[in-house]
Amino acid sequence: MPPAPRQALQRAEQLRKELHDHDYRYYVLAEPAIADEQYDRLMRELQDLETEYPVLRSPDSPTQRVGGEPTKEFRTVTHDPPMLSLANTYSEEDIRDFDRRVRELIGEGNPLYVAELKFDGIAIALKYRDGALVQGATRGDGTQGDDITNNLRTVRSVPLVLRTKVKALMNIEVRGEAFMNRKDFDAMNAGRSAAGEKVFINPRNATAGTLKMQDPKVVASRPIQMYAYFLLGPGKGLTRHSSNLETLRALGFPVNSNSKVCRTIDEVIEFWKRWEQKRDSLPYDIDGIVVKVDSLLQQETLGTIAKSPRWAVAFKFASRKAQTRLKGIALQVGRVGTVTPVAELEPVFVGGTTVSRATLHNIDYIRELDLRIGDAVVVEKGGDVIPKVSGMVPSLRPKGTAPYVMPASCPACGSRIYREEGEANYFCENAECPAQVQGRIEHFAHRGAMDIEGLGEAAVETLVSLKLVRNVADLYSLAGRKKTLVALERWGEKSTGNLLEAIARSRTQPFRRVLFGLGIRHVGSGVAKVLAESFSSIDTLAEATEEELHLTPQVGPKIAESIVHFFADKHNREIVRRLKEAGLSMTGAARSKEGRLNGKTFVLTGTLSSYTREEAGHLIEENGGKVVSSVSSNTAYLLAGEDAGSKLAKARGLGIAIISEEEFTRLIR
Ligand code: IVH
After folding, report:
1. Between these two residues, 451 and 643, which has the higher pLDDT value?
2. Which CATH superfamily is 6-66 part of?
3. Distance from the CA of 86 to the center of ligand 1, in angstroms?
4. Contact call for residues 70 and 239 (beta carbons, < 8 A)
5. pLDDT tens-digit profile of 224-235?
């Protein structure tokens, strides 16, 4: 290999340092310092340099996060010391016992405890030599695990190089938890389901499955994160677990900020109670807290029995799992015709409520869990509070059960249901299916779309069953049927009047809401907004080809295909024509061009009192303006609320117009 000129070497080193730094800011601190495009530019420059001079390539280069080749079989690594597991406690009484034992064994003095969240993920071990990541492994049986270095390298919050110059800290092992945020998990599952792929049961399961994949490129595409909670190796000098957590943070690891040093076991119990209450407010799942003796000297005195340390314990929350019986499987038909199987359960009390139904996603999920009607099943409530069937108890399967077979026809209209090659979901082929019509109208009317007050499930059901409404365009001719409506049971003059008024008012909703309300498959509110900004009217959108749609941000092949498919349908075109005739907004950019904030860039800062930031943002955009996150000479206005800080100072410095909420309100009226 030819040596690289000194200049190239220096530049590569600098780029690596900068990129590591940006990864750290973005993935660990969640405070990005540069725009994605800038990051990509730096990355490309480094890639080019490394291609030109392959000697520059090193395993800890940011370019190598996804560089690894697929692994056929993972090498086995030995954990020294072993990766211990924790004894479980479940009650105040248990934890007081733990405290008593600790006190007995350490003799005089009061132990300090560190209370941490117990992440419901997968334990990992990371080994660093000379400050660079050299090995990443699973826990396995605690003594031996799998070498999954190439997979863990792809996790952006795992540092490839340590942020330290201290010699003693360059050769360490760090243990922690890999996990996925619920939101990322749900989005990933939604994508998989739409693409006809198997959905994962929960974030933990998905993380475990992902870390064992052979191709690091696939791992890189999955939203795995980590928290570090254990530092091993630098030998002397370490005294407290709590300061080790600080050290880990300084080395560049993500360390959860919710840990707490507790002086008494009562404080520990309070921490446990508080997090049991607040667990759902976290973006990831936890299943309890971990209590650790802070002093490493005391930890040593306490030692380890069998596979668990005596200086730490898991203090679990009440289980949100329960066992019950699967009485039947019902089919639900959604607005685009998707047929979703739903478990009908013997009612069971779990995580604070009684559960009698839970989604089963699709037929593959049923097959994967091998669920049969009559089975004893495990119902689990994750942090998203939506109950899930997460397993089946084989030993309790009654005699004479049979694998579930998808019915041949739609439960709502009797039409044939079908599944396309490669799709996970079955569809009802009848676009006029009452279940679909009902779903489409509810979607059109709901708050995020046209926001028609009073048009909820029950009202839609009445209108659809009496054939007063067959599609969303029919809503705008309901005014002519007022007499019929008033005569309906429980409707009356007043509520009918209110509903008709709400429908009439919805005519002024902006184009992006109309577009979202149409319920085009895969077009959520975010995509609808982008489309409304990129296409001047519904007609230009309807005529766009897949290639043209592709050029729009956020629009991938699946969305593009779905949009073209939607507008190719005669019925859909007729509905759009009638909506236009009814006076709904069907133009995007053109409309906002007339806005009084046209082309003006806003920055928001401080706490607003009469709007949420999101609302203020929408108002600005609806009036043709734009919101950006940082102040520059291009900023037209800084909207400053209470306690505005550095942005205010910067705007003052640049001589930018600073407006209050009242002034803002006047500006948009
Ligand atoms: S400490 C001896 N801290 O819980 C130290 N573990 O059975 C053992 N876990 O396998 C680990 N959050 O995967 C520790 N803050 C935390 C944790 C945590 C989750 C997991 C870990 C371990 C299991 C204990």
Report:
1. 451
2. Helix hairpin bin (1.10.287.610)
3. 7
4. no
5. 999 999 999 877
Question: Whole-angstrom Cα distance, residue 459 to residue 331?
Answer: 22
Please tell me the CATH superfamily of domain 320-418, with its number: Nucleic acid-binding proteins (2.40.50.140)
CA of 394 to the centre of ligand 1 (A): 29
The finding on whether 120 has its CB within 6 A of some atom of ligand 1 is no
**What is the assigned CATH class of domain 434-508?**
mainly alpha
Measured in Å, residue 387 CA sits from the centre of ligand 1 at 25
Rounded CA-CA distance 355/197 in Å is 27
Mean pLDDT of 330-355: 92
Asked whether the CA dihedral 126, 129, 135, 139 is positive or negative, the reply is negative
390 close to ligand 1 (CB < 6 Angstrom):
no
- What token pair was written down for 326? 């699967």
| Dist. CA 238 → ligand 1 center (Å) | 20
Largest CA-CA distance found in the chain, in angstroms, rounded: 89
Ligand 1 neighbour 474 (Cβ under 6 A): no
Domains of the chain, residue spans: 6-66, 88-316, 320-418, 434-508, 511-581, 601-668
* Cα distance between residue 652 and residue 646, in whole Å: 10
Query: Whose CA is closest to 355, among 391, 392, 385, 333?
Result: 385
The answer, as to whether pTM is greater than 0.90, is no
Would the CB of 123 count as within 6 Å of ligand 1? Answer: yes
Closest ligand 1 atom, CA of 312? 2
Tokens of 183: 């939101």
CA distance 488 to 463: 10
Residue 204 has pLDDT above 60, yes or no: yes
- 45 compared with 108, residue with greater pLDDT: 45
* DSSP alpha helix (H) spans, 449-524: 457-465, 482-487, 492-505, 511-517
Find the helix or strand (DSSP H, E) in which 125 lies.
strand 122-129
Q: Is 6 helix (H, G, I), strand (E, B) or coil?
A: helix
388 part of the active site: no
- The helix or strand, by DSSP H or E, that contains position 560, with its residue range, turns out to be helix 557-568
Structure tokens at 460: 């839609």
In the CATH scheme, what is the code of domain 601-668? Answer: 3.40.50.10190
Per-residue b or e along 432-454, where b marks 16 or more CB atoms closer than 10 Å to that residue's CB: ebbbbbbbbbbbbbeeebbebee
**For residue 123, how far is its CA from the centre of ligand 1 (angstroms)?**
7
The C-alpha atoms of residue 509 and residue 366 are separated, in whole angstroms, by 41
Instruction: Find out whether the beta carbon of 177 lies less than 6 Å from any atom of ligand 1.
Output: yes
CA angle in degrees (0–180, nearest 5) for 544-472-620: 65
pLDDT attached to residue 591: 43
Q: How much is the average pLDDT of 651-660?
A: 85
Q: Is 613 strand, coil or helix? A: helix
The residue nearest atom 21 of ligand 1, judged by CA position, is 123
Confidence tier at 542 by pLDDT (50, 70, 90): very high
Summary mean pLDDT of the chain: 90
Supply the residue whose CA is at minimum distance from atom 16 of ligand 1. 118
CB neighbours of 335 closer than 8 A, spacing ≥ 6?
Answer: 436, 438, 439, 440, 442, 443, 519
143: pLDDT strictly greater than 70: yes
In this structure, are residues 79 and 275 in contact, taking their beta carbons and an 8 Å threshold? no
CATH superfamily placement of domain 511-581: 5' to 3' exonuclease, C-terminal subdomain (1.10.150.20)
List the catalytic residue out of 118, 292, 381, 529.
118
User: Which atom belonging to ligand 1 lies closest to the Cα atom of 177?
Assistant: 13
| Tokens at 439, concatenated | 């779903």
* pLDDT, average across residues 185-196: 84
**Percent of the residues in the chain that have a pLDDT greater than 70, as a whole number:** 98
